[in-house]
Design brief:
By secondary structure, the chain is an alpha/beta fold. Helices cover 25% and strands 11% of the residues. It has 13 helices and 12 strands.
């Protein structure tokens, strides 16, 4: 019997998401620095109860929630600036979300909002080095992403709770923190003048910073799990000409583009309000495809992931995202409308790693996602590609002519895998490199309260602490983790808890 699609989530109207492909038009969005922001005085030391390193998705959530207690002094340290100023329309207009996100290592044209990270050569991606877009700005990658929000499956959070030995991570217990974020509008603030002086008493006898000895950096606590256990999702497309208006219309017709800009400027309405894709779907690989997987692949998938954990995600996009090298250059602009379907692997068995390149932050880290290096991932990717073609056959009433990319000449498993390697791109969900776990887990970096093991007054809260990467998109879970930790810290500062709170002032590392 064929396995049904587990779920479909609408994330908005179908968007003509790549109008930005031709140098984004002037959409005027007046913006000024909110009055709540405080920058302190340059060159003047200041002390704080909490120092948040990284003003990203989790960092600003934590900082804003902690600042609700007027007795607490909270600082955020962020390398980037305000994306509203540094990247203008390309960050504030939702449909321009693909700007500077291509896999070409040169597709980082605005270093003010992108770190410019590039992976090591990836065996699963035709040995290419891929640009890995990450937000360098207040808001982190949530200021640059596709605005997808949904919650994980019950089974994936149950597995999380069991891995870390804490029922607080089960779906019912974590749900209240998920429910807070959709109504959350953080004020945000920054102070660049904080000092965080520590004497040896601040650490346990063996504790210390999370760095590598090979670069001459003093190591007080050696946690072998740092930088390991990297989970990530990757995806690849197929492309057809269609008889419906897509983003190609705006690229081919300046009048259509001008109309979209006018609608956005005047009413915040129309295709520019929504990033692609407009709908997402997930499923476990159905028959007959599942039966064609090797016994080893089926065993690996079934023994690793719970029954409600989908293996494939489908992302239909009203535009041309083919080789994914540089999204604004890929539409043929030949007068034809094009649409894509992407398949993402959301039950990956491949694991990567990240490590330092040198002792200076001026050198980017060595990023090795290791996509498609597990044999089961390879089999699932090939099957997922064939499943994509199934969907296109069911959409024959909207397609015009044959498959454009990769084309009907790609038929054998070897040809399909070669195409996937050339078209593969990250979904930018890297997680798990400082994983949460029990003290008996030699690879654990933080405990279930986000405390770095063996180190006092240091916590990590972002996707790096995920012990596993739930299927789909992690943004909601990053918010939920931050909300959970903020609530726990605020409890410490209630009047009845002040004696405990006095010894619990923390540095919180967060970047997503």
């Amino acid at each position: 019997m064929q396995c049904p699609v587990i779920s479909w989530v609408s994330v908005g109207l179908v968007a003509l998401a790549l109008y930005a492909a031709s140098a984004a038009p002037n959409v005027h969005s007046p913006w000024q620095l909110p009055p709540q922001h405080s920058f302190g005085t340059s060159g003047v030391n200041a002390s704080f109860d909490y120092v948040v390193i990284g003003g990203g998705t989790a960092g600003l959530t934590i900082a804003s929630r902690l600042s609700e207690n007027p007795r607490l002094r909270v600082a955020v340290v962020e390398q980037g600036g305000f994306y509203e100023l540094d990247n203008g329309n390309l960050s504030t207009v939702p449909a321009y979300c693909t700007a500077f996100a291509g896999t070409n290592p040169n597709d980082t044209n605005n270093p003010l909002v992108d770190w410019g990270f590039v992976t090591l050569p990836q065996a699963g991606a035709s040995n290419r080095r891929l640009h890995y877009a990450q937000g360098k700005t207040l808001g982190g990658s949530s200021a640059r992403n596709f605005m997808v929000y949904h919650r994980p499956t019950i089974g994936s959070l149950q597995q999380w709770a069991e891995a870390v030995g804490d029922d607080a991570y089960t779906f019912p217990r974590l749900l209240p923190f998920y429910q807070k974020s959709p109504h959350y509008n953080p004020p945000g603030f920054v102070s660049p003048n904080s000092t965080n002086e520590q004497d040896p008493a601040a650490f346990t006898a063996e504790g210390g910073p999370l760095q590598l000895k090979s670069h001459g950096i003093a190591t007080i606590k050696d946690l072998p799990g740092v930088g390991q256990n990297l989970w990530d999702h990757a995806f690849f497309p197929t492309l057809y000409p269609v008889n419906l208006p897509t983003n190609s219309a705006g690229l081919n017709d300046p009048t259509v583009q001008a109309t979209a800009v006018s609608e956005y400027e005047q009413r915040r309405y129309g295709p520019l309000t929504i990033p692609a894709p407009g709908t997402l779907g997930w499923e476990k690989l159905p028959e007959p495809y599942r039966g064609n997987l090797s016994a080893d692949a089926r065993r690996a998938l079934d023994s690793t992931f719970p029954s409600d954990w989908p293996e494939l995600e489908f992302l239909p996009v009203t535009g041309t995202l083919s080789s994914q090298r540089n999204y604004k250059m890929e539409d043929p602009k030949n007068g034809q409308n094009y649409a894509s379907i992407f398949t993402a692997l959301v039950a990956p068995l491949s694991r990567g790693n990240i490590t330092l390149n040198s002792a200076t932050m001026a050198n980017s880290p060595l990023i090795n996602p290791n996509w498609l290096t597990h044999p089961a991932d390879v089999e699932l990717a090939i099957a997922g590609f064939k499943r994509q073609r199934d969907f296109w056959r069911q959409l024959a009433n909207v397609t015009v002519g044959p498959e454009k990319i990769p084309g009907t000449m790609v038929q054998t498993d070897a040809q399909i895998l070669n195409f996937i390697g050339e078209a593969l791109a990250p979904v930018w969900h890297a997680a798990g490199t400082c994983k949460m776990g029990q003290r008996s887990d030699a690879m654990a970096v933080v405990d279930s309260s986000n405390k770095v093991l063996g180190v006092q007054n240091l916590r990590i809260v972002d996707a790096s602490v995920f012990p596993l990467l739930p299927p789909g998109h992690p943004q909601s879970t990053v918010y939920a983790l931050a909300e959970k930790l903020a609530a726990e810290l605020l409890l410490l500062h209630r009047p009845s808890s002040l004696s405990t709170a006095a010894s619990s002032r923390d540095t919180i590392a967060s970047e997503h």
